[in-house]
Amino acid sequence: EEGEEAREAQKEEEEKAAEAARKKAEKLAAKREKKKAETSEPEEKAEEVLVSAAEPEETVLTVAPEEPEPVEVIPEVPEPVEVIPEEAEPEEKTHRPEEPLLEGESEFDRSIRVFREEDTGTVREPKKKGAGIVRAFFLVFFGAVFIISTWSFFENAYEKYKSDKIYGKLQEQFEDIAFEDDTGESTLLTLLEADRKSPATPTLDEILENGVPEKDDPGRDVDLERMRASLTSLANINPDIYGWIKIPGTTVNYPIAQSDDNEYYLDHAYTGDNLTNGSIYADYRCDAYVPNNRNTVLYGHNITTGTMFHAVEDFFDRDLFDNAKIYLYTYDGVFIYKAFSVHETAYDSGYIRPYFTDDNDFVAFINALAADSDVKAKDLTLDADSKILTMSTCTSSVRSTRRYALHAVLVDSVTDK
Predict the structure, then answer these.
(1) What is the DSSP pairing of strand 280-282 with strand 333-346?
(2) Given a cut of 60, is residue 339 above it in pLDDT?
(3) Is 194 exposed, middle or buried (CB count within 10 Å of its CB: 0-12, 13-18, 19+)?
């Protein structure tokens, strides 16, 4: 009905336009007739002049009638008429011939059986190849990231478990050793002085078999015997044992190994087992007798869970830097150090040098370390006779060539030599 009304309205508009055009044409024709009548009067007057002038033989002046100026007729442009397209009548759906009922089949079952996608009235758009490739790429990419992250998480958790299992029991053996008394003074120096009077130190197996001597036995000290016996017992497991390092107030409490290179114990425990966390180990160039080294260099991983040499980062704190003592145990005695420099440096900056040409070379080296420190040491003397300890660990960045370095100077020791 709406289409029919539109067509009727269009027809009326066309008739009105035609009527208007006809009237304008008639009006224009009337104007032309009037103009033509006005121009015919001068022609009649001119003929009269010619007749009267014929009687005398005089020159007859013929006046030509003025030609009317052409009138430009501008045809009127009819206003555009909006043509409303007729709505196409919806095409009647062609129905497939009704499928006959199968034996034992209900009407509902038949409707399900003969149902097709086109019966829904929707048209599925064809899939774009490009979109499918992009979707597949991101699916594979994020799937790979998830798998790698999950594998890394469980691998780290397993390595932590292995590390705790390997080092946990050892740390318990050294946990009860008296590093300081209630006043903060070292008791180990007193213990080692007393041990010098002892003709022999029993091994851990001997202590377990015969019992630990009483505290009041002359020339004996339980803590000292346990420390040296533990080192001897570790050496029976692995002759590469160099000593033990402990820093009270931190997580550093580990045996120290040493091999003929600086690579093996990066990924091996002190027992020789494969271990990503590795070991704390001494530079292969360092002498087993610590006082012979001007710079005793130790290495350890920076494990983000806080183990191994992660505590080196903690020395950037002024309180720990000023107050912490570093204990290094070897078969020859106990060596106690105080920090004088902590800084970040390049792995090849020379901060792990064990050898020096002369005293001046060494003094220039330790002065440069002190100058590079992020925390400045108080009341420590550094000179040509100083013995220093360097603890090196990687930074937290993955695959970084940067290192955290902690340098400490020997402030106290007792040895048997």
Answers:
(1) unpaired
(2) yes
(3) middle
Encode pLDDT of 157-171 as tens digits.
Answer: 655 565 666 676 666
Would you say how long the chain is, in residues?
Answer: 417
In whole angstroms, how large is the CA radius of gyration of the chain?
A: 55
- DSSP character string of 225-270: HHHHHHHHHHHHH-TTEEEEEE-TTSS-EEEEE--SSSSGGGSB-T
C-alpha 232/C-alpha 246 separation (Å) is 17
> What is the CB-side half-sphere exposure of residue 53 using CA atoms within 13 A?
12
| pLDDT score of 390 more than 90 | yes
Q: Which residues contact 285 (CB under 8 A, 6 or more apart)?
A: 297, 354, 355
Q: Rounded distance, CA 336 to CA 408, Å? A: 9
Coil, helix or strand at residue 370? helix
Query: How far is residue 247 from each of residues 53, 151, 250, 252, 340, measured CA to CA in Å?
Result: 151, 33, 6, 5, 15
Is-contact 170 227, C-beta < 8 A? no
Position 410 scores a pLDDT of 95
What is residue 182's three-state secondary structure?
coil
**Burial group, residue 322, by CB count within 10 angstroms (0-12, 13-18, 19+):** middle
Nearest CA-CA partner of 159 in 271, 275, 264: 275
Q: Which of 288, 301, 372, 380 is nearest to 335 (CA)?
A: 288
Q: Which amino acid is at 240?
A: D
Residue 415: left if φ>0, alpha if ψ -120 to 50, beta else—which one? Answer: beta
What are 391's strand-pairing partners? 298, 406
The single residue listed with the structure tokens 């442009």 is 77
Helix ranges, 53-101 (H) = none
Half-sphere exposure of 105 (CA within 13 A, CB side): 13
> How far is the C-alpha of 97 from the C-alpha of 86, rounded, in Å?
32
As to burial, measured by CB atoms within 10 angstroms (0-12 exposed, 13-18 middle, 19+ buried), residue 390 is buried
- Angstrom distance (rounded) from CA 204 to CA 197: 20
